[in-house]
Amino acid sequence: MHDALVLDANAVAGDLAELFGFEVTAAEHRCAHCGNVGAMGTLLAWTQGPGITLRCCVCRDVVVRIVRTASRTLIDVSGAAYLEIRPL
Ligand SMILES: [Zn+2]
To answer: How far is the CA of 79 from the centre of ligand 1 (A)?
Structure first.
């Protein structure tokens, strides 16, 4: 992992809003690997691969992976113990 390629998840906020249908960076998550709890916007984003990878800012394990193809979008959130979305 090259830190020069790392962004925070706010850099992909538009992509996340398009996929989830709402602003998701303020949603709370818990890392399934280390238990860190924080806003989705605190995740670290790698965007240079074939998709978007969001990693925990504490343990750097993968929390969310998003891959788009011509016909579908795959979203893997298995690295999150939960996502908490609160009404505005
Ligand atoms: Zn973690």
So the answer is: 9
Distances, alpha carbon 72 to alpha carbons 5, 13, 38, 69, 79, in Å:
26, 19, 29, 5, 21
Number of domains in the chain: 1
Do 8 and 45 meet the contact criterion of CB atoms below 8 Å apart? yes
Q: Residues with Cβ within 5 Å of ion ligand 1?
A: 31, 33-34, 36, 56, 58-59
Q: What is the pLDDT of residue 29?
A: 96
> What global pTM score does this model have?
0.87
Question: What range does the domain containing 34 cover?
Answer: 3-84
